């Protein structure tokens, strides 16, 4: 078995171009198409009232992941907009806000939500303080502290499935592109590493091995380990580049992100074996792989978030698509910050799909090619 | 030493091999001749325990190999019909791989590789990637990797398909030499009768799954002993002449080619003058009329009514 792996690695080192092409494409697409998501949008902000800069509102705005608010004078702000260095500026009043719009863009509604959210929270807090009859600063402090404590140990809790403070779906471009293209392109790398099983069997290379003291299952295991390795190496390289070179922070869950890629890569190896067992020859395989991978990407949320898909039929299809679960676990960890325990379901599905597809695939292959 | 008894294989409704009986003794070169689709590869696969027969037995040293093929597997080397090599590796790396799966290691492996490379004449191309090889070189390597574990019996499935005549001769000579020098037993499959005629002591001829003749070259040719073949050559024919030949009661069979007509007639009949006369009557200008010694091709033609090659 070691000998088989050695031969495979020698071939890989001699001819790594396909592998590099797909790795490069994943990185390229994620970088180019996801470019805007990599940096936060800078928004000039001004208020007549100097205290606003230290207020609750300002604190809330700082928490935004998507925007960076830069304080400046009114003239500077107008200048920024006029020169096109910023699309929109915000003027904060005590109970209200104004936008100065230079270029109308999709960012505007997101910005509006962020700013409005801050005011709404401020308003709620003021109401609570009023209801508690707190007038002095010390009283306010106590009420707020109590409030904070109560919030941390609530009587009942509502889980929000969407990300960030605003109760709307937020489209995190960086992760969307990175995960989507990685999971999409790795299908090719894995599939093209499983295909040789079919070719080698047809040419009689496997027969030679079967006649030797080496067992057939060793040939299967070595080939599958190798395909898994190459697929995993690809996602590893891509994620390492994004983590350490581009500087994407996986919300502090980088290692877990790498971990949950394992079941996905495994399920794709199994899927490739299954497809290999169904097709007649290499040409058919080459024709069918792009169709399968592109459909998987479209209904699995690799090109656009699965939340956009509305058709009942496509949603049902997405339930048997490993890519859907791959996106779910990656988003779960890096975007929503779920603990691993909450992702046991999609991970189990991936592993189950892997085991079933691999079992059925090998069985079919043995029956058909004998 | 090795014996096939009523060996049969059915693929769905298709009888690929029907009741094949065959034996191979130590040191022989056995030919298995037949056109494409005759069932040669299927027979070889059953013999080498790669596919299970529908019926019949493979016996090696008087033991059935169907359920427990290990003793047979250890002593055979199989050269498949396709190039079964890693084309992205060098010749030497391929040999290392196939040597290792037979548990050869280190010095022993290295020595064996050197020896086989010499035998197949690829010593100076050992470091080259197989993909860059000519068809003939690939074929030679395909044979070479089957010899690394010193098999007693080597089984070759059409090892000369699609290569230049020079490589072909080289392979034929190599097979003959291995047999002479190392007493290697050879089962050689082909649809080229010249190869089988050149190499083999005994020959089995298959067609459509059936064994249609077997024996030594002379024995097989004696099938035709009651007949002889006459080759008639001309630049063009006309229907009148062909019809005349076909109508003639002494002519057993007529095969029409572009510039050659072969007819089979009883051995004792002399038709020379008659043919000349027919040609004159039909206005056909003959180039030559020859009596031929029968070839295996003629035997095949006689038995099946078709040419060996399509
Ligand atoms: N795996 C298979 N499944 C179905 N039919 C097969 C298979 N292998 C061979 N055959 C059929 O069996 C017949 C004999 O084929 P084969 O043994 O390859 O002939 P040869 O090697 O003499 O050209 C052919 O008709 C072929 O189509
Ligand atoms: Mg064949």
TrEMBL record, chain A:
Domain of life from the UniProt record: Bacteria
The entry's keywords: Cell membrane, Membrane, Transmembrane, Transmembrane helix, Transport
Membrane topology label: Multi-pass membrane protein
One Pfam family hit: ABC2_membrane_3
Listed name of the protein: ABC-2 type transport system permease protein
PROSITE patterns hit by this protein: ABC_TM2
UniProt-annotated location(s): Cell membrane
Boundaries of every ABC transmembrane type-2 domain copy: 140-368
Transmembrane segments: 21-46, 178-199, 220-246, 258-278, 285-306, 343-365
GO CC terms of this entry: plasma membrane
Matches recorded under InterPro entries: ABC-2_transporter_component, ABC2_TM, ABC2_TM_bact-type
Gene Ontology MF terms: ABC-type transporter activity
Ribosomal protein keyword on record: no
Family: Belongs to the ABC-2 integral membrane protein family.
Automatic annotation (TrEMBL), chain B:
Keyword match ATP-binding: yes
Pfam name, any one: ABC_tran
SMART domains assigned: AAA
Molecular functions per Gene Ontology: ATP binding; ATP hydrolysis activity
Domain ABC transporter stretches: 2-233
Regions that span the bilayer: none
Keywords (A to Z) from UniProt: ATP-binding, Nucleotide-binding, Transport
Family matches, as Gene3D superfamilies: P-loop containing nucleotide triphosphate hydrolases
Coiled coil: none
Name recorded for this polypeptide: ABC-2 type transport system ATP-binding protein
Organism from which the protein derives: Oceanobacillus polygoni
């Amino acid at each position: 078995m070691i000998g088989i792996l050695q031969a495979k690695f020698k071939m890989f080192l001699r001819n790594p171009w396909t592998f590099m092409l797909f790795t490069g494409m994943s990185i390229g697409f994620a970088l180019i198409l996801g470019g805007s998501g990599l940096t936060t949008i800078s928004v000039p902000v001004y208020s007549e009232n100097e205290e606003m800069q230290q207020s609750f509102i300002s604190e809330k705005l700082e928490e935004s992941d998507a925007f960076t608010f830069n304080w400046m004078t009114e003239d500077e702000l107008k200048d920024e907009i006029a020169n096109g260095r910023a699309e929109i500026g915000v003027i904060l009043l005590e109970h209200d806000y104004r936008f100065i719009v230079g270029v109308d863009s999709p960012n505007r509604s997101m910005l509006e939500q962020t700013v409005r959210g801050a005011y709404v929270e401020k308003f709620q807090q003021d109401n609570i303080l009023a209801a508690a009859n707190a007038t002095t600063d010390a009283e306010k402090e106590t009420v707020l502290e109590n409030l904070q404590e109560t919030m941390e140990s609530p009587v009942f809790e509502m889980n929000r499935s969407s990300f960030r403070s605003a109760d709307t779906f937020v489209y995190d471009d960086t992760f969307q592109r990175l995960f989507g293209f990685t999971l999409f392109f790795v299908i090719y790398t894995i599939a093209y590493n499983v295909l040789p099983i079919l070719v080698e069997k047809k040419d009689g290379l496997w027969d030679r091995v079967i006649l030797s003291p080496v067992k057939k299952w060793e040939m299967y295991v070595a080939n599958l380990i190798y395909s898994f390795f190459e697929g995993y190496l690809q996602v590893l390289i891509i994620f390492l580049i994004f983590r350490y070179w581009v500087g994407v922070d996986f919300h502090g869950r980088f290692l877990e992100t790498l971990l949950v890629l394992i079941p996905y890569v495994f399920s794709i190896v199994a899927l490739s074996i299954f497809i290999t067992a169904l097709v007649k020859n290499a040409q058919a395989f080459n024709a069918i792989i792009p169709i399968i991978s592109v459909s998987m990407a479209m209904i699995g949320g690799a090109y656009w978030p699965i939340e956009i898909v509305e058709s009942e039929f496509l949603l049902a299809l997405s339930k048997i698509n490993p890519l859907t679960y791959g996106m779910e676990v990656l988003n779960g960890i890096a975007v929503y910050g779920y603990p691993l325990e909450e992702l046991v379901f999609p991970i189990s599905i991936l592993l189950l799909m892997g085991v079933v597809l691999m079992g059925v695939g090998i069985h079919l292959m043995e029956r058909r090619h004998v | 030493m090795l014996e096939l008894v009523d060996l049969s294989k059915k693929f769905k409704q298709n009888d690929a091999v029907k009741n094949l009986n065959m034996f191979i003794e130590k040191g022989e070169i056995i030919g298995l001749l037949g056109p494409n689709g005759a069932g040669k590869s299927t027979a070889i696969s059953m013999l080498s325990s790669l596919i299970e027969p529908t019926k019949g037995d493979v016996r090696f040293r008087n033991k059935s190999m169907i359920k427990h093929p290990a003793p047979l597997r250890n002593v055979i080397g199989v050269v498949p019909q396709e190039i079964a090599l890693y084309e992205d590796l060098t010749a030497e790396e391929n040999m290392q791989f196939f040597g290792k799966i037979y548990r050869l290691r280190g010095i022993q492996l290295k020595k064996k590789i050197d020896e086989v490379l010499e035998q197949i004449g690829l010593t100076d191309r050992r470091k080259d990637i197989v993909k860059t090889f000519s068809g003939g070189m690939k074929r030679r390597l395909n044979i070479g990797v089957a010899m690394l574990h010193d098999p007693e019996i080597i089984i070759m499935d059409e090892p000369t398909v699609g290569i230049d005549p020079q490589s072909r001769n080289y392979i034929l000579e190599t097979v003959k030499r291995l047999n002479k020098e190392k007493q290697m037993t050879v089962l050689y499959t082909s649809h080229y009768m010249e190869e089988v005629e050149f190499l083999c002591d005994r020959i089995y001829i298959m067609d459509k799954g059936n064994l249609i003749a077997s024996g030594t070259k002379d024995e097989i040719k004696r099938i035709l002993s009651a007949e002889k073949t006459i080759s008639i050559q001309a630049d063009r024919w006309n229907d009148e002449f062909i019809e005349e030949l076909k109508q003639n009661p002494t002519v057993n069979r007529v095969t029409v080619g572009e510039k050659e007509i072969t007819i089979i007639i009883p051995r004792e009949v002399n038709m020379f003058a008659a043919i000349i006369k027919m040609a004159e009557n039909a206005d056909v200008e003959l180039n030559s009329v020859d009596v031929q010694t029968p070839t295996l091709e003629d035997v095949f033609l006689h038995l099946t009514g078709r040419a060996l090659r399509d």
